[in-house]
């Protein structure tokens, strides 16, 4: 499989797990994110991801609102959590 | 147990390791499997993937994510790569790479699209094209640990020649508890007894385990196949919490 050869189509949050692991110690693909727009609680691996390795926009699997952005910028790895109320992670195996 | 090994890596930072190509397997005209030696590999769980990084002589880097197709019990890591002509990475991995070549890889990553016997069954797998790769890791693992959890694979390919791992799948299916249902979307050989169209709701209803059995469902393939299959399964009464998806773009079956 070659996840990132195509542009424009969403992938799953799971596809951005390498990028997420550059910032988080826990496996965030199995963490629950609460959408600030519709209140849906889904696993990050279930969100729709645009982008992948250099940066990703995570959209709610239910209402498509942006819940998270994680991007390599010239000034550093930038996480923008506007759009999510809560991220709930379990200290379990990667 | 692989779970134990993986859990020790919880606080281990994900590092780039050097993978050496030990063997190249021609799977189909468009698909190759790379069998890799990765010193220090911490082990994976079935369904996880890796990031691959290629560095050109001028320092330019390209990165892609590939599912691991081998089972955790294997000492070597298998990645199965489909050629995407306009791609940056897959043409190298399917055409130029030779045994003994090295490239960088980090993983395992992603705990979301993972199945182990502890999760239970029945297992209902739906694959399109090279989306079979992470599901193959699950089936090879299931065979390696002699699991008797019932498993069904519905696998869509364009033609008979495009079916990846066909002989191995048929051998596994001849053993206890695995059913493999193929469908060919573009061309079918004479006397073909399998499906002859894209995966749709009626096909899922006729080959899939009963929704009442609460199967654990994993769907991997082109985005359109994954989304239509997930939607159909919800309409058929399967539980949303048990449907895991892995999309990878528009190509495949």
Structure description:
The complex is a heterodimer of chains A (94) and B (253). Chain A is mainly beta and 94 residues long. Chain A has one domain (11-88). In chain A, 7% of the residues lie in helices and 38% in strands. Chain A is built from one helix and eight strands; from the N terminus they run βαβββββββ. Chain A has one helix spanning 17-23, and strands spanning 11-12, 32-35, 41-43, 48-51, 55-59, 66-73, 76-80, 84-88. In chain A, the strands form two sheets. Chain A has a five-stranded antiparallel β-sheet, covered by helices on one side. A three-stranded antiparallel β-sheet of chain A has the order 3-2-8, with no helix packed on it. The longest helix of chain A has 7 residues, at 17-23. Chain A is globular, with a radius of gyration of 12 Å. In chain A, 43% of the residues are buried. In chain B, a hairpin with a 5-residue loop joins β3 and β4 (61-67). Chain B folds into two domains: 2-109, Elongation Factor Tu (Ef-tu), domain 3 (Beta Barrel), CATH 2.40.30; 123-247, Nucleotide-binding domain of ferredoxin-NADP reductase (FNR) module (Rossmann fold), CATH 3.40.50. A six-stranded antiparallel β-sheet of chain B has the order 4-3-6-1-2-5. In chain B, strands 9-8-7-10-11 form a five-stranded parallel β-sheet, with helices on both faces. By secondary structure, chain B is an alpha/beta fold. The A-B interface holds A 1-6, 9-15, 17-18, 21-22, 25-27, 29-30, 43-46, 52-54, 91-94 and B 3, 6-7, 9-14, 45, 49, 51, 63-67, 80-82, 84, 86-90, 106-113, 130-131, 133-134, 220, 223, 244-251.
